[in-house]
Input
Amino acid sequence: MKIKAYAKINLMLDILGRLPNGYHNLWMIMQSVSLYDTVEVEKTDSGKITLSCSEEGIPLDEKNIAHKAARAFFEYTGTENCGIHIHIEKNIPSQAGLAGGSADGAAVIKALNMIFSANLSDRQMCRIGKKVGADVPFCIMGGTCLAQNIGDVLSPLEDIPECFFVLAKPKMGVSTKEAFESVDNANYIKRPDREKMLLAAANGDFDEMFKLSANVFEQVIEVPERVEIKKVMRQSGAKLSLMSGSGPTVYGVFENKNDAENCAEKLNEFIKDVFIATPAKQGLEIIE
Output
C-alpha cells in the first residue's frame, strides 16, 4: 500500500504548562498542507519490521517513528507480524516543525490497518498514534483542527479557503526537547488570544485568524534567517508569516499563486529548502 503523508503547519501554538505525566499541555490550531512524503508498506516473510528511505541520515531502526508506529500497531491489535517493509520517499524536511516523521508514522498505521484488515476506526488509530508521537493523531485526521492536551485531543474546524503557503526551511534543525526546555526556562511568555482565535476559526473568519495567529516558540527559539524570511514574505504580499511548530521553518500565506511564486524565488536566493503548498483537507491519502 502506498500513501501520501501530508505535512502540517501551526496557525496558532500556545503552551499552557506541564501535565502530571511530564508532557506539555498544548493549545494549537493545526493545518495540513499539500507537501507530502510517500510511504509504501508491503508484507514480507522476514518476520521483522524493515525500513528504507530516500534520504540519507534518517534512522532505519526502532528510533524511526514509522518503525515505532508499526510496532505499536501490532501490539495494539495483537496481529502477528509475518514481516513488513516500509519505504519512505522524503519530501518533508526533517527537524523542520512540519511533522514529517509523525506523518510517516500515521501513514504506516493507516496502511497496516488496511493490509491486515484490522478494521480500526480513526479514533482507534489515533490511540495507537498517541503512543508513538504527539503529532501522529493529527496527521491521521488532518485538515484544520484545534489540538489540545499533548496534541491528541482534536476538534475539527472549518476548512480554510484556497490559498498558497510558502514554506522556507533554514539549514539549522531544532530539537523539540530543547525548544520546550527554552519555554520552561523563559522568564516571561506573551500569550496569544486563544479565545478570539477559536471564535474566528469557528465562524470561518479567516482574515481575523491570520491577524491573531501566533507561535510562542518564536519568543525563545533563535532562527538567524527568520527576520529576513519574514521581511521577504511581507514585501511579497503575505497575509501572515509565522514559524511552524518548534521551527525553524517559517511559512507565509498568500492569496494568489503569482505572489507565492515571486516570494519563493526571492527566498531561494538565500534559503535552499523552499516549497509552495496549498491547504490539504486530510492528513493521509491512499495512492494505491
